[in-house]
């Protein structure tokens, strides 16, 4: 009976390992490969980009940091008006990727995967984990 359980456990472990390998091999932004060369590029306007920047600048944390740096709202608006269209669009697109709090989900998932792999390896070696 123990031989049958061990065989099933090894088979399940191999299937899970290969599944994780297959999922990990897929690029994160794989939908970019599906879009053809005829795809329409979204238009961006200076007004929309400035509105996006203003929304971020009006947040409490950002406005406090800017006021600590000695910048007033008029100085910030003056500097934004001096930027070119390309600079404004670049700045606005970079604001979307900023995550001020960080993303802890990836770290938690990574730790869970490591713990599961350690448990699987220990079970395959017929070892037991005893926590006292």
Topology:
Blueprint: H1 2-25, H2 46-57, H3 60-68, H4 73-82, H5 85-97, H6 105-124
Helix pairs in contact: 2-5
Structure report:
There is one protein chain. This protein has 132 residues and is mainly alpha-helical. 67% of the residues lie in helices and 0% in strands. The chain has helices spanning 2-25, 46-57, 60-68, 73-82, 85-97, 105-124. Helix 2 crosses helix 5. The longest helix is centred in the first third of the chain and has 24 residues, at 2-25.
- The SSE string, one letter per element, is HHHHHH
Number of helices: 6
| Uncertain segments | 38-42
**Structural class by helix and strand composition:** mainly alpha
Mean pLDDT: 77
- Give the quaternary arrangement of the chains: single chain
Shape: elongated
Summarize the structure.
The radius of gyration is 26 Å and the shape is elongated. Mean pLDDT is 77; it is low at 38-42.
Write out key terms for the chains shown:
single chain; 132 residues; mainly alpha; 6 helices; elongated
């Amino acid at each position: 009976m123990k031989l049958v359980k061990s065989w099933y456990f090894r088979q399940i472990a191999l299937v899970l390992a290969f599944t994780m390998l297959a999922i990990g091999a897929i690029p994160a932004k794989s939908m970019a490969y599906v879009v053809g060369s005829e795809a329409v590029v979204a238009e961006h306007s200076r007004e929309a980009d400035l509105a996006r920047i203003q929304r971020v600048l009006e947040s409490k944390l950002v406005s406090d940091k800017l006021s600590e740096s000695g910048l007033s709202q008029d100085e910030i608006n003056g500097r934004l008006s001096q930027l070119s269209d390309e600079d404004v669009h670049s700045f606005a697109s970079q604001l979307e990727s900023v995550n001020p709090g960080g993303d802890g989900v990836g770290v938690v998932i990574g730790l869970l995967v490591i713990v599961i792999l350690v448990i699987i390896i220990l079970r395959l070696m017929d070892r037991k984990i005893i926590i006292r």
